Amino acid sequence: NAGVMQNPRHLVRRRGQEARLRCSPMKGHSHVYWYRQLPEEGLKFMVYLQKENIIDESGMPKERFSAEFPKEGPSILRIQQVVRGDSAAYFCASSPPSGSNEKLFFGSGTQLSVL
Amino acid sequence: QKEVEQNSGPLSVPEGAIASLNCTYSDRGSQSFFWYRQYSGKSPELIMSIYSNGDKEDGRFTAQLNKASQYVSLLIRDSQPSDSATYLCAVIVTGGFKTIFGAGTRLFVKA
């Protein structure tokens, strides 16, 4: 039973390029969450998605960031025109469709480095 | 006021001692509370969940919840060096749509 799969593990981009981070939830899970973590800081909520729907994107920056979770395939977090401040670990988590008491299962994260 | 607050530490305890980690939250309507452990360079993993006032024990871990005081704690008995990690308190906010994390408390257990 595969866990939450994120790729790539490490991503290096130059300023102005685009970054695409992928997340496949655990089998049977239909809820996906993206979090960002800066060094020595906690996890900052970015967005919560279900298949083909964005449920809560209150933590997403208004510009350059977008997320999707299509009917088929992984969830994608897209960062356009990256800047050095985007350098962070991005974690994806998934949970089953079981109501509001949702325990999160995390992927290994993608470490984004912007040069 | 931050939604979930924790003392960042570091908290240092000797091996075999009890480590006590504390957390307060601002959303009085929250009903679900969690403790995650995160080793350096790794992803968080769930170690405890608690939904009702009182204590919940699981092995060496005890979670305590006091909704009136908006306070959650985690006790680790017989602390081991392998418990050295950052412990993240997490709360599902009213509406049940997202989990908010505290900044974490770094724990060091000295052998």
Secondary structure: number of strands of chain A: 11
Largest interface: A-B, 24 and 25 residues
Anisotropy-based shape of chain B: globular
Low-confidence stretches of chain B: none
Distance between the termini of chain B: 37 Å
Order of helices and strands of chain B: EEEEEEEEEEE
In short:
The complex is a heterodimer of chains A (115) and B (111). With 115 residues, chain A is mainly beta.
Defining traits:
heterodimer, A: 115 residues, seven-stranded mixed beta sheet, 11 strands, globular, B: 111 residues, mainly beta, six-stranded mixed beta sheet
Textual characterization of the structure:
The complex is a heterodimer of chains A (115) and B (111). Chain A has no helices and eleven strands. Chain A has 115 residues and is mainly beta. In chain A, strands 2, 4, 5, 6, 9, 10 and 11 form a seven-stranded mixed sheet that branches. In chain A, strand 4 and strand 5 form a beta hairpin. Chain B has no helices and eleven strands. In chain B, the strands form two sheets. In chain B, strands 2, 4, 5, 9, 10 and 11 form a six-stranded mixed sheet that branches. In chain B, strands 1-3-8-7-6 form a five-stranded antiparallel sheet, with no helix packed on it. Chain B is globular. At the A-B interface, strand 5 and strand 10 of A face strand 4, strand 5, strand 9 and strand 10 of B.
